[in-house]
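RECORD TYPE: inverse folding
INPUT: structure tokens
STRUCTURE:
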């Protein structure tokens, strides 16, 4: 016979162990444990008087408070809690999950604590592990944003915690290319980036009125970047991809000043009219503490019935690489050449990065393999 004191002690042990398991459940937006965030407000274990497969059966009620009512990731969190509870080895636990939302006071305190932990720009503090790649071009129309979107999607598919900022304020396109059509969740002034294909994304194009003409100048552009960095909860991603505006204007300088640890990747096409201008975007590194990591040549050739057609000429990427290597006095390699493929455009317009299959895994074709090699090279 089990004494009542032993049974109560057993219940307490189960509740403690369940809490320990729930501490491994991570909020998908905030990137922190749901217990650390104060989302678990109660756990109660009530044993039944039956045995199942040699193990006692216990009803476990878990009371959860989400950060906002109607959170779009509610079911994902509930499923993770169910998995954590039912994986308990010593007993058969039957979960009952009661879902509520935090009070305004509790949410305010949580946001204040998160902001205090961040202390403004989280990507420019000592010891930060995030590798930052700013994708630049000398002119528009060379496929810079397409490269940014597919590179970010490749990083995410390889298992890296990936973030992407659309810093092309006038010509934002990352939301379309990544299929990130939602709006950021606002937690008392702190924004949650929209996640698509595993990439946490922020763009001015996600906000109401962004379809109107934007006439911002230097200070306001700089402030928009600071807000994307400090007013958005990114967690601590492994990699951040920044899609810059073409040229060497205010936003490029703002990124260099705000994120001196960023590495520049220059995108060009083969013809001299593009490659000559692309060199200028790399020469920004002579004026600011930024390293140019390498060059990507887009639209290098077109395969037509087995014949390789160089529609836009040849050698643009190599010319940019050579000129930047001479000017900067360190090796600026040609990292990748990308063929001209209609699938790249079509998939981008559909919000599906061409490097991914329908399940979000890296696709098995030449272009995906090229981006995978590029991502691995950049992360070395």
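DESIGNED SEQUENCE:
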């Amino acid at each position: 016979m089990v004494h009542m004191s032993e049974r109560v002690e057993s219940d307490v042990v189960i509740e403690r162990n369940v809490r320990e398991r729930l501490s491994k459940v991570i909020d998908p937006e905030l990137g922190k444990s749901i217990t650390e965030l104060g989302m678990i407000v109660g756990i109660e274990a009530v044993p039944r008087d039956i045995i199942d497969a040699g193990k006692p059966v216990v009803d476990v009620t878990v009371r959860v408070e989400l950060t906002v009512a109607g959170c779009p990731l509610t079911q994902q969190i509930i499923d993770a809690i169910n998995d954590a509870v039912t994986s308990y080895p010593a007993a058969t636990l039957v979960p009952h999950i009661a879902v509520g939302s935090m009070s305004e006071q509790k949410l305010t305190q949580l946001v204040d604590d998160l902001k205090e932990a961040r202390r403004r720009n989280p990507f420019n503090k000592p010891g930060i592990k995030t590798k930052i790649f700013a994708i630049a071009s000398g002119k528009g129309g060379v496929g810079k944003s397409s490269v940014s979107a597919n590179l970010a999607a490749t990083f995410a598919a390889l298992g890296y915690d990936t973030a992407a900022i659309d810093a092309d304020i006038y010509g934002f396109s990352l939301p379309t290319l990544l299929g990130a059509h939602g709006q950021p969740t606002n937690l008392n002034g702190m924004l949650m980036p929209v996640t698509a294909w595993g990439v946490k994304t922020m763009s001015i194009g996600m906000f109401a009125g962004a379809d109107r003409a934007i006439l911002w100048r230097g200070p306001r552009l700089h402030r928009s970047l600071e807000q994307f960095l400090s007013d958005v909860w990114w967690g601590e991603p492994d990699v951040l991809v920044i899609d810059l505006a073409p040229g060497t204007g205010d936003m490029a300088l703002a990124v260099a000043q705000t994120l001196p640890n960023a590495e520049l990747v220059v995108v060009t096409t083969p013809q001299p009219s593009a490659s000559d201008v692309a060199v200028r975007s790399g020469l920004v590194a002579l004026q600011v503490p930024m390293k140019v990591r390498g060059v990507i040549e887009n639209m290098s050739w077109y395969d037509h019935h087995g014949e390789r057609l160089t529609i836009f000429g040849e050698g643009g990427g190599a010319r940019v690489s050579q000129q930047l290597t001479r000017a900067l006095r360190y090796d600026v390699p040609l990292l990748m050449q990308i063929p001209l493929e209609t699938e790249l455009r079509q998939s981008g317009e559909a919000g599906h990065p061409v490097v991914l299959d329908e399940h979000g895994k890296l696709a098995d074709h030449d272009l995906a393999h090229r981006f995978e090699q590029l991502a691995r090279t950049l992360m070395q």
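NOTES: Residues 143 and 287 are 25 Å apart (CA to CA).
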